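We emphasize that the prediction below concerns an isolated chain of 106 residues; any contacts that depend on oligomerization or on bound cofactors are therefore not represented. The input was used exactly as deposited, without trimming of termini.
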Amino acid sequence: MSGPIAGRVAKGAALLDEKVPGWDARIDLATLNLASPCRCVVGQLFADLAEDDVVLGYAPGLGVLGFGPGDDDSPYGFDAAPDDAAEQYADLTAAWKRLIEGRRAA
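Result of the prediction step, given as a token string:
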């Protein structure tokens, strides 16, 4: 992985490694979609948390990772950067898939 998106995803993966060991084995790559608060990495890991967070546009589980409502989680690759959000979701999803597939193949 290279480039700014890959670096952000690597930073997010490191945070997940610290807070949620074994997280990568729990991600369903077939449904992974960073544009969806329920099918993104964090949404899949913490699907059992309150659905109220999703309604407010706050992905479930971000609080477990140390984020609060309104915090910018894009530097960790959990969301697109505010400047060009729509264009980044496909690239973020692809970067997370590559990282997870690489770990599973190792």
